[in-house]
Design goal:
heterodimer; A: alpha/beta; six-stranded mixed β-sheet; four-stranded antiparallel β-sheet; B: two-stranded antiparallel ribbon; 57% helix
Chain lengths: 257, 409
């Protein structure tokens, strides 16, 4: 009897896993976005098609004005497209109001910013716990979980320190722990190494690679070629269209250094 | 929304951003402090004013006879004018509809004794309306009445301090007091809020006095109150007419400044009222000026705070904060700070007034206090205006796109 039960359980879980891997994490179809400038308008995204599977690590590259930031804003639900479909993990993202997008952002997305964007009067632990606060988690649970992720980024000993008492690399790791804490489906990093020196940049990238190895889907916006090469796929944008989408062999930071 | 975590967030934000908290708190505390102190001082000035004029009946006219200074109708200059009972009747006849109370008085001083206790008091022979004119308040017994006047009874009504001096603990009603060698029966005791002097006096029926001292109809002076509905100008005109008619009646030259004095309180009352009005206006302006300065101050700070926190708002939004939670966290924080600061300012202001009371009394500021509810409503006004002034920018900031807020450095 127990055996049958176990067997059934295994079958069910594998099926679940199967369907999960078949589904796309992100599917974008014919995405258009333009901004009004005076009487005319600037067409920033001109029909973007992009799909990203679970467990991918993608770099979005392009010079400034290529539309990469706009694309990231739309994926991050910070902005809305004029037309086209955007499906996140099977969920169509459309007609979002402020409340709904706040809930989705909290549940689905983890942000990593160039300038870390930690709250300066909160210590590392409190910063990591903040998204959990907005999930309505109890204080004790929140702190345990935040501590867990701080340990994961190797900063357990710095939990009580304020952002100004930490180095740039440490701050970015706190920010990564914060992004992870809410257990998002998708990590969005906007120039995560932009404010860091090369050595620290590589450390951060190595860490992001580790997270990807664990199965997390990561999108990194960057204009640095070497950083982009540390991902598994590079999507190049120019003038609002994708000019190149190449899957490549990832450069492991561990080998590189 | 108001769970313990929200409060924890708020308290942390307050304690970790001391400059900001102190700044906004100080503005409110100082505004309320100034409001209380200025209002209190102005009230002190008003109290002094009030005290100066006491509970004197303000619609009163007093008439005193004197020597004439001009010859008229065969009378020589320097004639001593004597008022008599018939003059009272004349006035009643002429101005009956405009007069409220009319009292004839004879003043003298009396050596009073009861048992072994002796003292000197002013003794005024009066008619019953005198009680209303002087605003004497009966504590025991009755006042002089019409029957006393008719029967010329030897009764007196004594002031509170006369009772204390002469009787100490003995109930005075029905007892006999010796005044200048004549026994009078005490029928009543009164008190007067005008002060000690008024309570060290004795009143008796005027008819008794006239009979006992020479069996005359002589009167020492007249007091009357006029219809309260008259305004100042009417009152002044009334007293002028009264003086003219009385002069004619008593055969005093119309141009004679002496002979008879008519003092009308309306003259000075007009000025006093204008001054009280100016004072009230001043208090109003001070109060509202301080309040408006406070409102402008706290509004500016709220706008500044929201601006300063724009990036934090962006971070919180990116992490999944609802716009409402951002609005409430910032507003509750500001309301909390302004409430505490307002209370501190209120206590400091009222406390200072209390402390400075004896000193200010020297500078003619009597009892400089301000009503607690007034300062409280000023504080609440300030708190609310801070919240309202903060609400619009916070609302706007809570709707800002996180990415825009994050770029705000």
């Amino acid at each position: 009897m127990i055996l049958v039960c176990d067997l059934l359980f295994i079958i069910v879980t594998t099926k679940k896993l199967d369907s999960k891997f078949k589904k796309k994490m992100l599917k974008i179809k014919q995405l258009n976005k333009s901004y009004p400038i005076g009487k005319s308008s600037l067409h920033v995204l001109k029909g973007i098609d992009l799909s990203i599977k679970h467990g991918e690590m993608v770099a979005i590259m392009g010079s400034s004005g290529s539309g990469k930031s706009t694309l990231l804003n739309i994926i991050g639900m910070l902005d809305e497209a004029d037309s086209g479909d955007f499906i996140l993990d099977g969920l169509p993202i459309k007609n979002l109001n402020e409340k709904k997008s706040a809930v989705y952002r909290n549940k689905f997305l983890g942000f990593i910013f160039q300038s870390f964007n930690l709250i300066n009067y909160k210590n590392a632990l409190e910063n990591v716990a903040l998204p959990l606060y907005y999930q309505g988690m109890k204080r004790k649970e929140r702190q345990e979980k935040a501590m867990y992720y701080l340990e994961k980024v190797g900063l357990a000993d710095w939990a009580e320190h304020l952002p100004r008492e930490l180095s740039g690399g440490q701050n970015q790791r706190v920010a990564i722990a914060r992004a992870l804490a809410a257990q998002p489906k998708l990590l969005l990093a906007d120039e995560p190494t932009g404010a860091l020196d090369t050595k620290t940049s590589y450390e951060i990238m190595e860490f992001l690679q580790q997270l990807n190895d664990e199965g997390r889907t990561i999108i990194i916006v960057t204009h640095e070629e070497d950083i982009a090469k540390m991902t598994k796929r590079i999507v190049r944008l120019r003038d609002g269209i994708i000019i190149e989408d190449q899957v490549m062999n990832q450069v492991r930071v561990a080998e590189y250094v | 929304m108001f769970d313990i975590d929200t409060w924890r967030e708020i308290f942390q934000s307050i304690s970790k951003n001391k400059t900001r908290s102190v700044l906004s708190g100080f503005t409110v505390a100082f505004a309320i402090f100034l409001f209380a102190v200025l209002f209190g001082m102005a009230n002190g000035l008003k109290n002094t004013f009030k005290e100066q004029f006491g509970d004197r009946v303000v619609n009163a006219i007093h008439v005193y006879p004197w020597r004439t200074s001009k010859a008229y109708k065969g009378f020589q200059a320097g004639r001593h004018i004597q008022l008599k009972n018939e003059d009272v009747a004349f006035l009643k006849n002429e101005f009956g509809d405009k007069i409220e109370y009319l009292v004839a008085k004879v003043y003298q001083s009396a050596k009073a004794s009861f048992g072994n206790n002796k003292n000197n008091y002013s003794l005024t022979a009066v008619t019953p309306d005198f009680q209303h004119l002087e605003q004497n308040i009966l504590m025991e017994g009755r006042y002089i009445n019409q029957k006393d006047l008719q029967d010329k009874t030897k009764v007196i009504v004594i002031g509170r301090l006369v009772k204390e001096d002469l009787f100490v603990n003995i109930p005075p009603l029905g007892k006999y007091v010796n005044l200048n060698g004549i026994q009078y029966k005490v029928v009543g005791v009164f008190r007067d809020e005008d002060g000690d002097r008024a309570e060290r006096s004795i009143a008796m029926p005027i008819t008794t006095s006239q009979q006992l001292y020479g069996n005359t109809t002589n009167i020492g002076g007249l007091s009357l109150t006029y219809n309260k509905n008259m305004d100042y100008d009417e009152a002044i005109a009334f007293s002028n007419t009264l003086k003219t008619k009385l002069k004619k009646h008593l055969s005093i030259a119309p141009s004679d400044q002496n002979g008879i004095y008519v003092s009308n309180f309306a003259d000075s009352l007009k000025e006093i009222n204008q001054m009280t009005f100016a004072l009230s206006a001043l208090i109003f302006v001070i109060g509202f000026g301080t309040l408006i300065a406070g409102i402008v101050g706290i509004s500016n700070i709220m706008i500044f705070i929201v601006k300063e926190r724009t990036k934090e708002i962006g971070i919180r939004k990116a992490l999944g904060a609802q716009p409402n939670s951002i609005v409430s966290i910032i507003l509750i924080e500001s309301i909390l700070i302004t409430t505490i600061a307002g209370y501190v300012g209120l206590i400091a202001g009222i406390g200072l007034l209390e402390l400075a009371k004896p000193t200010l009394a020297i500078y003619h500021l009597k009892d400089p206090s301000v009503s607690f509810s007034l300062v409280l409503s000023a504080t609440i006004t300030l708190i609310l205006s801070g919240a309202i002034a903060g609400y619009l920018p916070v609302k706007k900031a809570s709707r800002i796109k996180p990415i825009v807020a994050l770029k705000n450095d």
